[in-house]
Specification:
Blueprint: H1 2-29, H2 32-39, E1 41-46, E2 54-55, E3 61-62, H3 64-76, E4 79-84, H4 91-96, E5 102-108, H5 111-116, E6 118-119, E7 124-126, E8 128-133, E9 151-154, H6 158-166, E10 170-173, H7 176-185, E11 190-194, H8 195-201, E12 211-216, E13 220-226, H9 232-245, H10 248-255
Parallel strand pairs: 1-4, 1-5, 9-10, 9-11
Antiparallel strand pairs: 2-3, 5-13, 6-13, 7-13, 8-11, 8-12
């Protein structure tokens, strides 16, 4: 009797294992679009990055990327959920672990990003620019003049890569907003952030009126990243094309003062 009970228990365990394996294989065979639609949410990985993703007075995520991501999720028939990527250097890990479904945050299309994610077509022109106190800006108008400065830059960002290429000391921080704070507080001589953010957050009438941008260190494009092989990248390209043709993209970009950098789709 004991042997029979043991055999039955083993058979039940084997059946459960086979069922779990079958379910796992079924999930693996789903397209990313099917996976997102089945769970009913699109989890959007972001950082605090005005004018692309930031919170308004009511706590709602707004900005060009936030508005477009919300509209794209609605076009898929799912609910958008915004989730902060605490360490930008871990964005690919977050995607692969399905903590987020997409990285949509003014992301530079670097070789590393393109090789590790399924990326959309580029949709914005950008550059990495140097941020310094406005009263010292005249001293820092060339790359050569930056020698010896201590920089702050977002960890894992294109800005950090540009500082490292210069050979300067760099303090990695959580996000670009923190990099600005480092310069304003005097704990860093300068920062490197995205041009679009520099326009929105520094100079007269902003929170960082005493800071300004000087040298552009490169030229680059923004793109949106999905899991490698995801069918959602092509779905987004089609969404971008339709939104550009009907004027939606330009209207949203104009709302945030960045229409001049929009790439035709």
């Amino acid at each position: 009797m004991k042997r029979m009970k043991r055999t039955i228990a083993l058979l039940l365990a084997l059946a459960l294992l086979l069922a779990l394996t079958a379910c796992q294989k079924k999930d693996e065979n789903k397209s990313d679009g099917e996976y997102v639609k089945e769970k009913g949410t699109l989890i959007i990985g972001i950082t605090e990055f005005e004018p692309m993703d930031y919170q308004d007075a009511s706590g709602q995520w707004v900005g060009f990327d936030a508005d477009m991501a919300r509209a794209f999720a609605e076009s898929l028939g799912v609910t958008p959920q915004f989730q902060i990527i605490a360490d930008w250097d871990n964005k690919v890990m977050e995607l692969e672990g399905k903590t987020v479904d997409v990285v949509w945050n003014g992301m530079t299309l670097t070789d590393e990003v393109i090789s590790s994610m399924e990326c959309s077509n580029p949709y914005f022109n950008n550059a990495q620019v140097v941020i310094v106190p406005a009263d010292k800006a005249e001293q820092y108008q060339t790359k050569e003049s930056l020698a010896g400065l201590v920089f702050a830059a977002e960890n894992g960002s294109a800005g950090q890569a540009e500082v490292e290429a210069l050979g300067n000391e760099c303090t990695p921080v959580q996000d670009q907003a923190t990099a600005l704070l480092e310069v304003q507080s005097g704990t860093a001589d300068a920062a490197v952030i995205d041009y679009l953010m520099a326009v929105a957050m520094t100079g007269e009438g902003t929170s960082y009126a005493n800071l300004t941008h000087t040298v552009a260190l490169n030229e680059e494009n923004y793109g949106v990243g999905f899991r490698k092989g995801s069918d959602l990248a092509e779905a987004l390209n089609e969404f971008f094309k339709a939104s550009y043709e009907d004027g939606t993209m330009e209207s949203i970009a104009d709302q945030y003062g960045i229409a001049d950098s929009l790439i035709p789709q």
